[in-house]
Specification:
Pathway: Carbohydrate metabolism; tricarboxylic acid cycle; isocitrate from oxaloacetate: step 1/2. The protein is mainly alpha-helical. It has 18 helices and six strands. The chain binds s-citryldethia Coenzyme A (SDX).
Length: 428
Amino acid sequence: MVDNNATLNLGEQSLDLPVLEGSCGPDVVDIRKLYAQTGNFTYDPGFTSTASCESALTFIDGEEGVLLHRGYPIGQLAESSSFMETSYLLLNGELPDQDTLNDFTHTITRHTMLHDQLRQFYQGFRRDAHPMAIMCGVVGALSAFYHDSTDISDPEHRKISSHRLIAKMPTIAAWAYKYSIGQPFLQPDNSLSYTGNFLRMTFGVPAEEYEVLPAVERAMDRIFILHADHEQNASTSTVRLAGSSGANPFACVAAGIACLWGPAHGGANEAALNMLQEIGTPDRIPEYIERAKDKNDPFRLMGFGHRVYKNYDPRATVMQKTVREVFEALNVTDPVFETALRLEELALSDDYFAEKKLFPNVDFYSGIILSAIGFPTTMFTALFALARTVGWVAQWNEMISDPGQKIGRPRQLYTGPTQRDYISLDKR
Ligand code: SDX
């Protein structure tokens, strides 16, 4: 894989560093021997120019707005695949045939139930607890229930833990919503699809049959596909770093959930809809665009911008199309959608956003769809976490399966006090 060398001149030293070439995307300069041979670290807060690992799962071309899962474009997967099929693809590397997909779906379906004692965990939360706080707690607690599958060196243990996490996230998320509105929990119904089961557990009630609307089921399933994995984003990197210490997968995913919650990351879908509702009508958009451009104002257009995409986020394109499909299926409209379309139009015609290459990202339109389906904004990031769990466990498996993987332990540029002696209290 070594393609050529980079030469680093450091004082009197001249160091040849291997340049590694992947199957597509930027080459990397392999600096693993830099500190041992020069006593210097590299410096890259925020990892804007750092490849933390080698991966074969997801490829993003930020300039071209390309997102591939195991080589398949996200637009094709969103159009033609299902979340279960895309989950199998991410975990195993190839699209399954029908029998394999049926077996995988059956396995996941039969792990959707939660240990009955986990109900008690919900009782400890206030009814107005944010669902992400509940998700962090309940997912972390799963490790206390599955001592039969936490030997991460055993591929079978890794497989069953991965399946349990993918399968149980819909139940955990649906119950977090039910708990917040004081309605009874519904047990999974194995006769339904993964996504249909989630919709029923979320919106169904014991007193009557819940009808899963095919158009809503399809839209929800597509939203899960769009959120499944996204290279080494902050929460995935959190899961990898936690996993590198040998922590069990339930604890690692709980760490990923905590990181995803931030408004700069997965929390942006909730923040974006709140922002659009605060803006209200299109006539107020210029005021908010000016605020977003004002360096003295911390306000940012939520759902805009991306560390990697410097062109349109391909997921936002699919998401915008899905808004129209859901509105038509539910025969609803939402003035917020018109505001969102107008905001996008005005922002993209403004030099500030064009110069900084700020486009709508996956979070800009998703909230409008979720709101139309009936989710409160507080559930939006929990849905992101539900879908991203397959990406987290696939990335975790890829790392743990690498015999050469080491514990992640970055260094620093130290700018604190140099050594000094302790001063007793009476002398200060
Ligand atoms: C997700 O990494 C992933 O892949 C994440 C994700 C995934 O699937 O896992 O794609 C999901 O997290 C999507 C992003 C959701 N976050 C938001 O929508 C929050 C709003 N956007 C930002 O805060 C910001 O754009 C980030 C955090 C997404 C990216 O930040 P970067 O890459 O660190 O860029 P930056 O903060 O250095 O901004 C570059 C410039 C700055 O101006 P200058 O200091 O250069 O003058 O652009 C400005 C920023 O002020 N800027 C914005 C802006 N985003 C960046 N200005 C106004 N509104 C914005 N939204």
